[in-house]
Amino acid sequence: MSENGSLSPADVERLLSDRSAEARAETVEKIASSLTERQFSAAERKEAEAIFRVLATDAEVLVRKSLSETLKELPDLPHDIAVSLASDIADVATPMLTFSDVLSDEDLMEIVSSQSESHQAAIASRPIVSEAVSDKLAESGSEEVVATLMGNEGAQISDKTFEKVLDQYGDSEKVNAPMAQRSALPITVAERLVSLVSEKLQQHLVTHHDMSPETATDLILASREKSMIGLLKEGASSDDLVRLIDQLYENGRLTSTIVLRALCMGDIDFFETALAKGAGISVSNVHILINDKGGNGLDQLCKKCRIPDGLVEMIRVAIEVVNELEYDGDPGDRARFRDQVISRVLTHFQDRFDAGNVDYLISKISKTDAGKDAA
Predict the structure, then answer these.
(1) Burial letters for 119-140: b for 16+ Cβ neighbours within 10 Å, e otherwise?
(2) Which residues in 267-283 are b (16+ Cβ under 10 Å) and which e?
(3) Of 16, 248, 265, 333, which one's alpha carbon is 20 to 30 angstroms from that of 273?
(4) Cα pseudo-dihedral 345, 349, 355, 357, rounded to 10
(5) pLDDT tens-digit readout, 281-298
(6) Is residue 107 within 8 Å of 134, Cβ to Cβ?
(7) CB 183 within 8 A of CB 153
(8) Any long-range contacts for 159-163 (C-beta under 8 Å, 24+ apart)?
(9) Cα dihedral value 291, 297, 303, 307, nearest 10
(10) Which of 131, 79, 130, 121 is closest to 100 using CA atoms?
(11) Residue 303 — φ and ψ, nearest 5°?
(12) Burial letters 196-220, b for 16+ CB under 10 A, else e
């Protein structure tokens, strides 16, 4: 470079004649950096761009990689140079694919279709990915590429694309975990994910996305029936349970029906902890109140939690059944326990309900007590 920062004949000569890839790469970086800092005149800029076009096809990867790295964020880089570098081998293309705003959606989708998984992954990690490009990546990309896309909050993803990803990779924790952690998801996608991801992510989905209380009730209890009923036997994960109930309560999703359903499924820890949260007392005091032989303790507790009258009697019957039964966690015991509780509750209310399962029972009660406050 000359003393005033302009492009000197010596710079051009060195680039075109020096056989050392390292030396050429160093000079490329100097010229490209000066270009980004707008130290060239219009004529010198044209000359530099002409040199870059030649260097974009340099036999040495190091030279092309240096060029791509230095020019990746140049806003007015000639389109043909950007496309040439972005279509190169992955080591050269990655900086340009990840950062260049010169590349259009059409350019990116063409590269997704024609280049390697590494090229696709670079595109999936761009600060902003349009819905069209995201859809193309979901359609053509590997599991790794789709996982990268799902973990990119800057990726704009349509409902259709989310559904497509779930259809193909729903069982992949590598894909569904970052999807579940996204700050915003369509409700239909969140619902599908609940049954596919780990317990921790189930809780995140139910408490952080825009689900109705009824949907949250269905999903969280369905997931707990599979993975959290161990609390009954082992007393494990109590901190996680408290955090879950706190979040449900804060988001208005700790409903009276979720409390009843937990009890009918034998999930005593959830039941007692939920009532403790609603009443603002300790779990140990809840345990004492619900086992008050006179029944006044349970009445007072339910009133404090604003549980509708139509549910209080059901809770009382379910508690009696649960106290009579034994749950030991052996294979099949979970279903036996649940069925016995449900059967007894239904028998008690046989004149009022013609149902064969707790879901129907609770849906009837929800309609009967519609509009009343939740626990």
Answers:
(1) bbbbbbbbeebbeebbbbbbee
(2) bbbbbbbbbbbbbeeeb
(3) 333
(4) -10
(5) 999 999 999 888 776 899
(6) no
(7) yes
(8) 159/186, 159/188, 159/189, 160/135, 161/131, 161/134, 161/135, 162/186, 162/189, 163/188, 163/189
(9) 10
(10) 79
(11) -65, -40
(12) bbeeebbbbbbbbbebebebbbbbb
At 191, the amino acid letter reads: E
* C-alpha separations of 373 from 255, 276, 314, 336, 362 in Å: 8, 17, 17, 32, 15
3-state secondary structure of 156: coil
Contact 301, 279 (CB under 8 A): yes
Q: Which amino acid is at 359?
A: D
The pTM (predicted TM-score) of the whole model is 0.59
Token pair for residue 95? Answer: 């900086």
Q: 221 pLDDT exceeds 50?
A: yes
Task: Locate 120 and state its tokens.
Answer: 């696709």
> How would you class 93 by CB atoms within 10 Å of its CB: exposed for 0-12, middle for 13-18, buried for 19 or more?
buried
CA distance 78 to 253: 54
pLDDT digits (tens, 9 = 90+) for 139-179: 999 999 999 999 999 999 999 999 999 999 988 989 988 99
How many angstroms separate the CA atoms of 182 and 208, rounded? 10
Q: If you count DSSP H runs as helices and E runs as strands, how many of each does the chain have, helices first?
A: 24, 0
Structure tokens at 325: 């039964």
